[in-house]
Amino acid sequence: MAGKHENRHDNANESGHTVKIGRPGQNAVDARSILAVISLGVKQGESIYLDVEGDRSEDVLDTLAEMLAHTE
User: What is the pTM (predicted TM-score) of this model?
Assistant: First the structure.
């Protein structure tokens, strides 16, 4: 199963889109920075929001949302 998500991650990562992630009520951070993402302190099951900018941003957003929703 890792291969399926790995390929989607590569496509989203290499898409050239600007991706930000945040918690409701907080400023979003650049999703490319693992330290910034960790600093959000998000725990499993908590709500987050994603902001994606660029061509076909809805496709990238859908891919990322599916990856993050996967709890296996």
Answer: 0.70
- 70, 72, 63: which is closest to 9 by C-alpha? 63
What does the alpha-carbon distance between residue 56 and residue 31 come to, in Å, rounded to a whole number? 18
Token pair in block for residue 36: 């910034």
Q: How far apart are CA 17 and CA 55, in angstroms?
A: 8
Closest to 21 measured CA to CA, from 49, 42, 2: 49
- Sole residue written with tokens 């990856």: 67
Q: Does the CA dihedral 62-65-69-72 come out positive or negative?
A: positive
Spatial CB neighbours of 70, under 8 Å, sequence gap ≥ 6: 5
Predicted confidence (pLDDT) per residue in 6-65, tens digit: 454 444 456 688 999 999 999 999 998 999 999 999 998 899 999 999 888 999 899 888
